[in-house]
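Worked problem 6 (solution included).
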Amino acid sequence: MQIVDLHNHMVTEEVVAFLVEEGRHLSTRVIEGPGGRVAEIGEGNVRPLGARMCDAASRIVDMDRLGITTQAVSATPFLLYPDAPPDLALAVARVSNDSLAATARRHPRRFAPLASVPLQDPERAAAELERAVGLGLRGVEIPPSTPGLALDDPRLEPVWAAAAAHRVPLCIHPFEASPRGPLARYLLSPLVGNLYDTGLAAALLVLGGVLERHPTLDFVLYHGGGTFAALLARLDKGHELFEACRARAPRRPSEYARRFFFDTITFDPRWLRHLLERFGADRLVLGSDYPLPLGPSDPIGEIRSLALAGDDERRILGGNAGRLLHIEDSGGTQP
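Solution. The predicted structure is:
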């Protein structure tokens, strides 16, 4: 059985070299920290750039240990640079997309890469999405917003149209490189902010009519969908009471909710079972957040511990992601 990890991250050496040369324009420095090479974003916000993040051979060893056949590798979230000037965000995206495509060509059964696009410039983002699909990338990772541009903004129509035309999923991943206020304390930005941002983004996609206008578009909500599942009953009530909630979305939000896919990173088997009962096994995809620390140590074991029916387990471990990414189950792996 092919097991596909749809949520993990990679920074290629080509991207590291780009940041060494151009990172000063993005408030990013590549430095040797006490624990090895890191990217420092702003003042003191560091992200690892070691072998597990940057080297395909090192991660294949870990994939084999974990039992993962294929990783849908995507850029680590800070590389999305949603607040950067569009030309710089596009330059980073192109280097990442080109190098992830090259990695997948060298290891075609191990990696199915996802593209980055400069969402702050929707026309350029749509063009880069189309270029990346031509390189063989299988989906797109996007932030939940950029400054002044939330996901219900009509200006994003070119991006949705391009993704729908090429039948590639859009995977939503929040990240605040330099959080402020309470989210800057206790590491609450990834622990709380990521979940809040994902729930808000999904609500905007629903109430903003994006799913209504693009019935074939697929979105993946990382981190178990964030707060979205917990918000659904309240969104349904708002749809019942308020015209503003019905203006672009004629159906109840819970009816659109099954259009989303949810990864399995919840750290709570009870919540994972809730997602299964609420949305069905055909809407869950395996995630690991590899190689970052906020991921399960045994992502496959967590699913198998639920003792699901065989078909449901196969869907979650690889079938759903394979269908989304157009990966054929070849029954084997290739180095």
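Discussion: DSSP finds 14 helices and 13 strands in the chain.
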